[in-house]
Amino acid sequence: MKRPSYVTDKALKTFIKNALEEDIQDGDHSTLSTIPQDLVQSAKLLVKQDCILAGVELAEIIFHTFDKNLKVEVFIKDGTPCKVGDVALIVTGSARSILSTERFVLNCMQRMSGIATLTHDWDSRLVGTKTKLLDTRKTTPNFRMCEKWAVAIGGGTNHRYGLYDMIMLKDNHIDYNGSISNAVAMAKDYVKRNKKKLKIEVETRNLEEVQEAINAKVDRIMLDNMDVKTMKEAVKMINGSCESEASGGITRDMLKDIAATGVTYISVGALTHSAENIDLSLKAVK
């Protein structure tokens, strides 16, 4: 699948450089002390748990960044359902290079596959509806790119990437400012003065705040921690004047009922902060 726009060559280069530096520093001494420099070997990436595989393209990039002479043969692409025993790829080349990148590749793929698998499972509950499943900014520092990429691989939709690409006025912004009306007016003035193209979303906690956000003419209204009955009334009030987003305390079993309210999006932090890693391993080909 096509990489999301935030997965740039520059971002990948920085991420991989920092991760390798953290792990190797002045040398992988376990490998340097026991593996001959000219030894060529192969290793297979073995799936040990049913999953939606993710991080294959990233693994290729990591291998080739570390050692351009490594050959990677991919058998299973990102987003593919896998079974125990499947071989996702085989990497061939310097045994030293394979060993020095093994854990880095596995850490990324295990985490990304866990997120993609969970996302696919939750998103399957929304099949047949117009509601889209969103992730959030509840991500691991310096690993957000990979986690949001995994959500996309799993069939979910990415919310804003960071603080810079959308204005989201949450409860603290509003409480510090005094009201939704004041906060939105200031945000609109800021966007105009700085000539930025940024959508404005407002978090609301009750129907009175929903009406205030409607009057303020924002791009999206978040319905935070509302029960399904209240969400349904809120969506009716919004009546297509802007997008709507259900958020807060959402479980998998609630998804269909929430989608039935007609809400545009459902955002779920659990996709990234509560996914369990998938068991994968890189084993020598004998």
Q: What's this, in brief?
A:
With about 290 residues, this protein is an alpha/beta fold. The chain is built from eleven helices and twelve strands.
How would you describe this structure in keywords?
single chain; 286 residues; alpha/beta; Aldehyde Oxidoreductase, domain 3; 6-stranded parallel sheet; elongated; glycosyltransferase; Nicotinate_pribotase-like_C; transferase; EC 2.4.2.19
Describe, in plain words, how this protein is organized in 3D.
- Involved in the catabolism of quinolinic acid (QA).
- It comes from Chryseobacterium gleum.
- It catalyses: nicotinate beta-D-ribonucleotide + CO2 + diphosphate = quinolinate + 5-phospho-alpha-D-ribose 1-diphosphate + 2 H(+).
- This is Probable nicotinate-nucleotide pyrophosphorylase [carboxylating].
- The chain is α/β, with parallel strands linked by helices and 286 residues long.
- The chain folds into two domains: 9-118 and 276-284, Alpha-Beta Complex (Aldehyde Oxidoreductase, domain 3); 124-274, TIM Barrel (Alpha-Beta Barrel).
- It is 42% helix and 19% strand.
- The protein is built from eleven helices and twelve strands.
- The protein has a six-stranded parallel β-sheet. Strands 3-5-1-12 form a four-stranded antiparallel β-sheet, covered by helices on one side. It has a two-stranded antiparallel ribbon with strand order 2-4.
- Strand 9 (220-224), helix 9 and strand 10 form a beta-alpha-beta unit.
- The model has no long low-confidence stretch (mean pLDDT 97).
